[in-house]
Amino acid sequence: MKDQTEFYQERIAAAQRAITEAVLMNVRKQAILARDRWIELARQHTHNLLEGEKVRTAKLARDAERELAAAAFGS
Asked: This protein's superkingdom (predicted)?
């Protein structure tokens, strides 16, 4: 009886280790996916900032051209 109990205890311990390993692998996978998502969001944010800066620069250039034309026309 003791041998059979020991046999099942070993199998149960092995199953628990397998479950723990699977959980850790899943956590690791989720961490990698979260990191990749963070990198993508950071890239998108940087892209949007640069695009916004381009729009502001173009507006400033148009305003400057308008002011220059108005000054030349007014002279």
From this structure: Bacteria
Q: Which two tokens stand for residue 10?
A: 């070993």
Q: What is the pLDDT of residues 8-62, one digit of tens each?
A: 999 999 999 999 999 999 999 999 999 999 999 999 999 999 999 999 999 999 9
Q: How far apart (Å, rounded) are the C-alpha atoms in residues 9 and 57?
A: 71
Q: Which residue has the tokens 């108005």?
A: 70
Cα–chain center distance at 53: 22
In this predicted structure, the answer to whether residue 75 has a pLDDT above a threshold of 80 is no
Neighbours of 1 (CB within 10 A): 5
Total length of the chain:
75
Q: What is the dihedral of CA 30, 31, 36, 37, to 10 degrees?
A: 70
User: CA-to-CA distance for 54 and 62, rounded, in angstroms?
Assistant: 12
